[in-house]
Predict the 3D structure of the following.
Amino acid sequence: MKQLRQTLTDLLAPPETHRWISLLPAVEAIRNLASKLRLIERATDVEVLRDYLCELRFALIFRSLGFDVEAEPMGKKGPDFRVDRDGKAAMLECTRFCRIYPGPPELGVTDPLPTLGDYGDPRRDTEKAFSKIISKFPQVTGFDSIVAVWNDDGDLEEFEVGEAVGHIRSDVTAGRYPLPLGLQAVLYSSPWSDVTTRKQIFCFELAPPGRPASEWFEELRALVVEEALARLVTQSAP
């Protein structure tokens, strides 16, 4: 873990570095992680590093709910993780939205206020979410699975991801392509939460109720990510 600590220190700001270093004992509890850790240790670009940390974050979210988590259960070309609890299991394939489009420029005293369109383009962002989700279909075909999306793009919200899942449902119904056999839901989360409900994790279900992961979704929807990770730090403390 020494090289991993150094990579985190080199590429992240001190508060984020400290947060991840405090989570490393919990990270070590993820089975079969050695290959993925080597890739993280070799990261030289902060966005590449955050892509890998997105995967670890989702693995730790499931660990916080008492799941056994195994990395790369089908090899490097398969899903990122297998999550298992109480005899029920699903594959977890993770992806991340990074910031692609610049936000509105900083305003001078005499500049007009920006419009809603300056802060985002719902159609563009829905298409971005749609493309990102369906690009993960090859990794999740053939077994009970979940696609998990972490969003670091402040322009994009759960609304666009929900719209993208709606388009996927429509395309599948129209016969444009099949839904991957076993895909149960798209899981969405971000650093932001609803100021009233504190809701931070959204589960957009694609399979009928009763599949192995169905009973997990309410637990996930009730979770506040930083609180869940903080509990893991406490549990892992000597």
Summary: The chain has one domain: 2-103+112-236. The helical segments are 2-11, 14-27, 34-41, 46-64, 122-134, 158-173, 217-221, 225-236. The two ends are 17 Å apart (CA to CA). Confidence is low (pLDDT under 50) at residues 102-119.
